[in-house]
Amino acid sequence: MANSRTRKVSEEIKKVVGELILAGIKDPRISKLSSVNHVEVTNDFRYVTLYISSFDPKHDVSLTIEGLNSAKGFIRKEIGKKIKLHYTPEPIFKPDHSVEHGMHINEILGTLDIKHDDDEDDEEDEA
């Protein structure tokens, strides 16, 4: 389990990169509907893995990752300005498909609920 300092640094990095996605980076490949869902910082604070998702159904998250990778130096510099650490961590961007996965599971559960409601109606009719 991550210690308290690692958790705090992760949350601060998440906040900084989230703000940069919204207002700081002017790359057209980066969707403004993208967000940082999860952040993992190594124990020595040398690397940070940021899991990115896009809420725009017309936009491919791989384009956003491409844009963020091209702005990696700028992002690292901004993290260093906002968070005082001995080493500024090197950002690593990965797509996060947990939102799409959750929506898919929700759709499946929705179909199960419909079938379950129909079964209850049949039982009430028989009684």
From TrEMBL:
Family annotation (Pfam families): RBFA
Transport as UniProt keyword: no
Keywords, in A-Z order: Cytoplasm, Ribosome biogenesis
Top-level taxon of origin: Bacteria
Self-association state and partner proteins as the record states: Monomer. Binds 30S ribosomal subunits, but not 50S ribosomal subunits or 70S ribosomes.
Family: Belongs to the RbfA family.
Protein name as annotated: Ribosome-binding factor A
Gene: rbfA
